[in-house]
Amino acid sequence: MNQEQFIVTKEHRRFTEFADTVRRQHTIGICYGQAGIGKTLSARRYSHWDKAQTLIGEWGPRDDSDAQVYAALGKSRTVLYTPSVLLTPRTLKEELDKVFTRVSICIEQHLTTVGKPAKRSDFPIVELIIVDESERLSPTAVELLRDRYDRNKVALILIGMPGLEKQFSRFPQFYSRVGFAHQYRPLGQDELNFVLQRHWRHLGKTLDLEDFTDAQAIAAIARVTRGNFRLLERLFLQTERVMKINDLTVITNDVIEAAQSTLVIGIS
Ligand SMILES: Nc1ncnc2c1ncn2[C@@H]1O[C@H](COP(=O)(O)OP(=O)(O)OP(=O)(O)O)[C@@H](O)[C@H]1O
Ligand SMILES: [Mg+2]
To answer: Is domain 10-183 classified as CATH 3.40.50.300?
Structure first.
């Protein structure tokens, strides 16, 4: 997703505040929320991972434009890590060490460029590790992260589905270090309207909240999606299709219902 498409929602701002606090307090935070409401995108945005991912992943020859990436990482001081499904603790350690070192080098590079080279007391220069899809972590992997947190005083955020906070309560040593549990929520009605206005525009139309047909369509969308971003996107793809096939020009309640019937919708 490119920068223009990302919508800075209230939930994204709450996530940013949460991450800043966890980072400042060198603690552990758990962020949980339904599938598809924007947790991963928020974390990517916060860590500037869209900019950094290729450079960190490939670690190839440098380019002048890389300075932008160094600056972005210098600002976020954050590593975003997504464990693979069959992750072993050894791989976790190796992968995390690798990405940690690479991000540190980028940040140091940035500090040198701006004339404030890192001192020994500045370490660890990475302040926060965000682990997405955290339910994939085995108990040993969790223990490994705790150890890293204790030793380096790097703040840690674990992102996952609702229930994640309970999953970790089975690890008392880990759990006792958790400073915050943050619930990522779906879009509220106001924001849903705002997002829908963009979708309407995308289809070359103007959404009028005072208009009965539009209001009905919005109510149908709110009912189907319950403010879930991913469902919203999928519903809109189908809506476009339904309109095209039937040669329709107005987004009505019926169009939304027809679009919904083609989706397999499951909200956990
Ligand atoms: N702030 C946003 N602005 C625009 N689109 C968004 C935003 N947040 C989420 N989306 C859309 O919703 C989709 C799902 O978001 P995301 O992958 O971040 O959800 P998630 O909460 O991480 O879900 P899961 O629990 O399944 O990993 C994205 O692919 C994107 O299309
Ligand atoms: Mg996700």
So the answer is: yes
Evaluate: CB of 77 within 6 angstroms of ligand 1: no
**Atom 26 in ligand 1: which residue has the minimum CA distance?**
35
User: With contact defined as beta carbons under 8 Å apart, do 145 and 136 qualify?
Assistant: no
Would the CB of 195 count as within 6 Å of ligand 1? Answer: no
Which parts of the chain sit beneath pLDDT 50?
A: 266-268
Describe the strand order of the beta sheet including 178-183 as a list of residue ranges.
78-81, 128-131, 155-160, 28-32, 178-183
- Taking only the tens place, the pLDDT of each residue in 42-99 is 999 999 999 999 999 999 998 888 999 999 999 999 999 999 998 899 999 999 999 9
Cα of 120 from ligand 1 centre, angstroms: 38
Ligand 2 centre distance from Cα of residue 154 (Å): 22
CATH number of the structural domain 189-261: 1.10.8
Taken in order 68, 72, 73, 74, is the CA torsion positive or negative? positive
* CA 17 – ligand 2 centroid, Å: 19
Task: Tell me where in the chain the CATH 3.40.50.300 domain(s) lie.
Answer: 10-183
Distance between CA atoms of 178 and 192, rounded to whole angstroms? 32
pTM value?
0.92
- How many Cα atoms within 13 Å fall on the side-chain side of residue 184? 33
Peptide bond into 124 cis (omega under 30): yes
Domain ranges in the chain with CATH number 1.10.8 = 189-261
Task: Give the CA distances from residue 113 to residues 58, 117, 135, in Å, rounded to whole numbers and listed in that order.
Answer: 22, 8, 39
With CA atoms as reference, report the closest residue to 105 among 81, 82, 123, 87: 123
Q: From the CB of 39, is ligand 1 less than 6 Å away?
A: yes
